[in-house]
Amino acid sequence: MSRKQGIVLIGMPSCGKSTVGVLLAKAAGLRFIDTDLLIQEDQGMLLQQIIDAKGNAAFLEIEARVLCSLETVPAVIATGGSCVYSERAMQHLRRLGTVVYLSLPLATIESRLRNIRTRGVAMEPGESIASLYEKRVPLYERWADIVLPTDGLGLEEEVAAILRHATPLPRRDGDADSVR
Known about the structure:
Largest sheet: 6 strands, parallel
Number of strands: 6
Radius of gyration: 15 Å
Strand order of the largest sheet: 2-3-1-4-5-6
Number of helices: 8
Mean pLDDT: 87
Structural class: alpha/beta
Shape: globular
Helix content: 40-55%
């Protein structure tokens, strides 16, 4: 992996972006950035408090602004699941590194995501995990340089797969490599 290139992790809530990101950063010798924590620091509130106080649209705008403020230092960046709603944020993240979508089946996400209403997930009132998944998966696939199916992989296997495949690649819009 080129040290000039970072790695940006995208995917549904509970797919393991932050957990894998810490281990990946250690293995790659890169800085680790969790953008959810940056948003909380910026606003002085937890994610759910921001959504409750300001609404989804304002939260998404705050998220996009924080993401666009990231500097181009080689890092592993774990994003919030809603980052893919912002074209400008995703274009910026692409400049920072290889975008890796940690893909999991809906059933696995549902089994892991027990605190959906308090976790700070940008969802419309009454929206289900299934409808959120249906809306977001095409966006994750659109922005991904690499799609990594992670169901059944251990953390070390995920890190190894990302390190194997997250090298600077020529990219055409809409193209993503699927790896296993």
